[in-house]
Amino acid sequence: MRVEFLGTGTSQGIPIIGSTHPVCFSKDPRDTRLRVSVLVSWDDYTYAIDCGPDFRYQMLRSGCTKLDGILFTHEHSDHTAGLDDIRPFCHRQGKLPIYLDTHVLAALQRRFDYIFTTENRYPGAPEVTVNIIEKNTNFSIGDTVVVPINVMHGTLPIFGFRIKDFVYITDASHVDAEEIDKIKNTKVLVINALRDTPHPMHFSLSEALEFIDDDELVEVTPNFLRMRKKHLNENERKRASKA
Hints:
Oligomer: single chain
CATH class: Alpha Beta
Number of domains: 1
Number of helices: 7
């Protein structure tokens, strides 16, 4: 399996328009980050997780010419706003499968009504095949089973996903104990860490480290760990590297 990180930025991307935060003036290329998404590939299959406003550029930069579907973690714009840019894939491949829960579907139907309408369709509009994800119910993409992981983004329930030995959790602020079994014994865990200080909607850096290092959750700790969406200044980065 190959995992490509298309973006690891905050909801506004980094740098942020008009921001005076030191990170937004950083010369470190790691501090230029697109909206969050990953591309997961194995054998002849390629799937994206989320489809934000940078999706077109991310696909061009990646060189992706074939996409078998998109899994959506939740309905926020930084994870869904690029849906119209699936048109080239639809024109070449036909309807593109999307995987999402009913709340995300309802949000997309409001924002992209022309994609989902069945009457007087615009000829160039994207076409999708809707696959509803049910809570605590595994589903298949290609020849592989996906395990949806229920996590909280503030007060909003969202999904993380386990694909083989790869677990992807974004925008989480809390993971219930009963979901931990779905993460255990994975080889790679991706977990969000927004900043050094607490945030109501996201794990902070210290909270993410506690999540993987807590004595009660020690079995969660994978062989490899990647933290997404760090927004740290230079002093915070040095301090985090020593932790």
